[in-house]
Amino acid sequence: MDNCFCVDSLSPNSSHELGEYLYIKLKDIFMENRPIIFLCIGTDRATGDSLGPLIGYKLKNIERKNIYIYGSLEYPVHSINLSEVLNKIKSNFTHPFIIGVDASLGNVQNIGKVFVEDSPLHPGLALDKDLPEVGEMNIKGVVNISGNLDFMMLQNTRLFVVMSLADCISNAISYFISKTLSNNTLISFD
Predict the structure, then answer these.
(1) What contacts 125, CB < 8 A, 6 or more positions away?
(2) What integer pLDDT is reported at residue 40 of this predicted model?
(3) Is 169 exposed, middle or buried, given 0-12, 13-18 or 19+ CB atoms closer than 10 A?
(4) Structural domains in the chain?
(5) Tens digit of pLDDT for each residue in 73-89?
(6) Does the CA dihedral 140-17-56-29 come out positive or negative?
(7) Does the keyword Protease apply (predicted)?
(8) Most buried pick, 5, 84, 106, 112, via CB within 10 A?
(9) Axis crossing angle, helix 159-185 with helix 51-59, rounded to the nearest 10
(10) CA dist., res. 166 & res. 173, Å (int)
(11) Are 145 and 112 in contact, with CB atoms under 8 Å apart?
């Protein structure tokens, strides 16, 4: 797929590769002064579904201009409040570029991998939830295998896998923010 990027969260340069990819894909959107919103979805009540809130938690103290993080351990965005949060974003921002960030279930060989697609995120698919699609781009971390008992898979996911994915993705977003802001300050508008 042309619009899909994949990296293994355990490979040594995964955060850098993912951060560079995000920079290439999002720098023009940032230069257009469009708000960029990372919407981290999930809950800390199931290990496998805590990827989004962990990423938001890790990014909560990063200084950023016109780049916003929604969803954290303290204020998670999940199936119950997702529509409300999306409405809040739409009422507070003009033409935001939203990137949905969420855990995913997949094939055994994809566990621990991060996938980025130029398409909306469809949260809740693993549990057959009918939730609104999110954003124009999505970042998914495969936390466990998909099967007949997806709820049990999310409940019985290794924390190591989730933390490795959270470290990779949060470090990549941090890298993207730092590079975007440092390159933006070097540009002269004379």
Answers:
(1) none
(2) 97
(3) buried
(4) 4-183 (3.40.50.1450)
(5) 999 999 999 999 999 99
(6) negative
(7) yes
(8) 112
(9) 40
(10) 10
(11) no
The residues, any chain, with a CB within 8 Å of residue 1's CB and separated by 6 or more, are 117
Q: Work out the burial of residue 87: count CB atoms within 10 Å of its CB; fewer than 13 is exposed, 13-18 middle, 19 or more buried.
A: exposed
Q: Are 98 and 37 in contact (CB under 8 A)?
A: yes
Per the structure block, which two tokens stand in for 172?
């990549």
Alpha-helical segments (H) within 40-81 = 51-59
Q: DSSP string spanning 78-145?
A: -TTTHHHHHHHHHHHSSS-EEEEEEEEEE-GGGTTEEEEESS-B-TTGGGT-----B-SEEEEEEEEE
pLDDT for residue 97 is more than 70: yes
Which tokens hold the place of 17? Answer: 């590769």
3-state class (DSSP) for residue 23: helix
